[in-house]
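Q: My labmate handed me this sequence with no annotations at all. I'd like to see what the chain might look like in three dimensions before we decide whether it's worth expressing. Could you predict it?
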Amino acid sequence: MRRADCRLSLLACLLGLGLSLPALAGEEHDYVGVEKCRTCHEKELMGDQIAVWSAGPHARAYETLQGEQSASIALELGIEGPADESDACLRCHVTAFGVPPTRIANPVSASDGVQCESCHGPGRDYRKKKIMSDREKAEKKGLWNAHEDVAICVACHNPESPTFDPERYALADGTTVGFDFELAKTRVPHAIPEDVKGRFIELEKAEKAAKKAAEAQ
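A: Here is what I predict for the chain of 217 residues:
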């Protein structure tokens, strides 16, 4: 089966399952880059999701294209030129690939690899604290439900990928699969602490007030 046919088969399968495919659909919202995410998500109070991302494989997705393994794979697939310049590779190794420049509100660097907005959606309209404190409002402003929407992951983690390992995940019954949504989430845990959800603004103010009072003593 040709690669183009593989893409169409995967898309048809996902649509048949009733999945939303937000990562593949046209969106009205703009990308702002991971630096905007750091404003809140690098804080200990929030759970420091940036630290988890930075230490994981998604942050190094673009970097891997510059290695010997990627060069070898590109050669095997008949890709002309370096892997880190190939559309076939970049579409799953950088954020906002193929997005028109008019939808890039702030610089999005390829070196950031697969950053927050690749999985949670372009953040310009939902990134403000008052919106993010209300899940429903945030989703209306473009936040994707990455914790429940498997389509976001399998858009890239699928047999079309030349490094896809059909036995990567071991299930409870002993069988192996190439991708398992629930197991995959446990490998990059970065949830907001339950006692902080919806209360970040309030708790941050209290934290700042306590710090100021301590400094005044």
